[in-house]
Amino acid sequence: MKLIIVRHGDPDYANDALTELGWKEAVALSERMKNVKADECYVSPLNRAKETASLSLEKMHMEATELKWLREFAPVVERPEKKGVAWDWVPADWTNMPNAFDFEKWMDHPAFKEAKVREEIEWIYSEFESFLEEHGYKKEGKLFRTLKPNNDTIVFFCHFGLECILLSHLLNLSPFVLWHATIAAPTSVTTVVTEERREGIAQFRMLSFGDTSHLYVAGMEPAFSGRFRECYMNENERKD
C-alpha cells in the first residue's frame, strides 16, 4: 500500500483559507497530482486543505472523503514564552525536555498533560489504526501484520503538524523530531509505502518527504510557512 500525504497550500490561518500564493501553489500541485493513479482520497475538514485538494481532485477525476481526524493537531499549551500550538517550541526548550525524543513518553511533559495532548494523540492514533486495519494492515508492536496485502494508493490532503503525527505512528518516531528537524512546505508531497520482506509482516518506509518538485517545475520557490529565520539577523523572515 502507498500513502501520499499532501500539505495544504500557503495559508491564511486567520480565515482558514489559501492566500493568493497558496492558490498558485495548488495549481502547480494539481499538475503533478493529475498523474497519480489513486484508489481513494481523503481530506481534512479545514477549508485550507479542502481548497488545496479541490484543484487536484478535479484533474484526478476523483472525490475526497472528509475525515475529522485529518484536521490540524488541535491542543494549545502553555509554553515558556506564550500559549501556542503543542508542536511549536523554541529549540532550546524542546531539546531539553527529558523525553522529547522518546516515541512512548514525549507526551508526559507537564504542559502536555495539562493540555490533554495524550488524549488527542491517542484519538488520532486510534482512528488511524482503524483506517489502516480496514485497508489491510494492523499494527502490532512496532510492525504491521498484513491482513490483506495490497498495492492501493491512498491520498491524504491535510496539515504539517498532523502529517508528522501520522508519520510518527508509522515509523515509531517522536513527532517532535519531525516537527522541528524537518519541514513539509505548503503543497509538499510525502510518500510512504509498505515493505514486506517476510510474508505477513510489513513496515512502512518513507520514499520521499516534503517533496516540492512541482513548484520548481512551475518556476516557484516553496513558501516559508512552517519555517523560521535561517539567521537571527534575517528580519524579513519569521521569528515567532
Could you please describe the fold and organization of this structure?
By secondary structure, the protein is α/β, with parallel strands linked by helices. It has a single domain, classed as Rossmann fold, CATH 3.40.50. The chain contains 8 helices and 12 strands. It has helices at residues 20-33, 47-60, 91-94, 110-114, 117-134, 160-171, 175-181, 213-217; strands at residues 2-7, 11-12, 17-18, 40-43, 65-66, 76-78, 83-85, 137-140, 143-146, 153-158, 189-198, 201-211. The strands form 3 sheets. It has an 8-stranded mixed β-sheet, sandwiched between helices. Strand 8 and strand 9 (143-146) form a beta hairpin. Helix 1 runs parallel beside helix 2 and helix 6 packs across helix 7. The radius of gyration is 18 Å and the shape is globular. The N and C termini lie far apart (38 Å). The model has no long low-confidence stretch (mean pLDDT 95).
How would you summarize the topology of this molecule?
Elements: E1 2-7, E2 11-12, E3 17-18, H1 20-33, E4 40-43, H2 47-60, E5 65-66, E6 76-78, E7 83-85, H3 91-94, H4 110-114, H5 117-134, E8 137-140, E9 143-146, E10 153-158, H6 160-171, H7 175-181, E11 189-198, E12 201-211, H8 213-217
Parallel strand pairs: 1-10, 4-5, 4-10
Antiparallel strand pairs: 1-11, 2-3, 6-7, 8-9, 9-12, 11-12
Keywords:
12 strands; 240 residues; single chain; eight-stranded mixed sheet; 8 helices; globular; Rossmann fold; two-stranded antiparallel sheet
